[in-house]
Amino acid sequence: MTDETFYEGRSALGQASALPASPEEARLDPVPNPHPDTLYLARFVAPEFTSLCPVTGQPDFAHLVIDYAPGEHLVESKSLKLLLGSYRNHGAFHEHCTIDVGKRIVSAVKPRWLRICGYWYPRGGIPIDVFWQTGPVPDGLYVPDPGVAPYRGRG
């Protein structure tokens, strides 16, 4: 299968794309991994992720770090950007948003391994950090620290 055939009718890549109205409407596009025989880590960082509090309707903000070891497919970054943006008007708790993003990626590309770290800014004075991974880190996979300092407030 050529890349052109793979993308035909499936991807927002190279096209003007509206932000999906909800995560349910968003679609992650897998693309062929040029090195499926190599164990390596790819990282996405979304320092301005937003969603809505399901109770108050007020905005919530997070810094997401997504690490994954690709298998046969990669996550196409524009489709990931659109998925993440679709949460802006979505009311859900921090735990749901973080884990839902991770599970959506796993469902779309079936990576060898994935970890998502959600560092949420304080709501009601309490920061909530959410971490999820698909299992143990594969032997030989280099996984750097997420690089996000714990919340320290003004102190």
UniProtKB/TrEMBL annotation:
Catalytic activity: 7-aminomethyl-7-carbaguanine + 2 NADP(+) = 7-cyano-7-carbaguanine + 2 NADPH + 3 H(+)
A Pfam family that the UniProt record links to this protein: QueF
Subcellular location: Cytoplasm
Catalytic residues, chain numbering: 53 (thioimide intermediate), 60 (proton donor)
Record-listed substrate binding positions: 75-77, 94-95
Alphabetically ordered keywords of this record: Cytoplasm, NADP, Oxidoreductase, Queuosine biosynthesis
InterPro entries: GTP-CH-I_C/QueF, NADPH_dep_7-cyano-7-deazaG_red, QueF, QueF_type1
Gene Ontology terms for molecular function: preQ1 synthase activity
Enzyme class, spelled out: oxidoreductase
Main localization of the protein described in the UniProt heading: cytoplasm
GO CC annotations, alphabetized: cytoplasm
Documented EC number(s): 1.7.1.13
SUPFAM superfamilies: Tetrahydrobiopterin biosynthesis enzymes-like
Keyword Cytoplasm: yes
Top-level taxon: Bacteria
A GO BP entry: tRNA queuosine(34) biosynthetic process
Chain positions covered by the region annotation Disordered: 13-32
PANTHER family in alphabetical order: NADPH-DEPENDENT 7-CYANO-7-DEAZAGUANINE REDUCTASE
HAMAP family: QueF_type1
Similarity comment text for this entry: Belongs to the GTP cyclohydrolase I family. QueF type 1 subfamily.
UniProt protein name: NADPH-dependent 7-cyano-7-deazaguanine reductase
Organism lineage: Bacteria, Pseudomonadati, Pseudomonadota, Alphaproteobacteria, Parvularculales
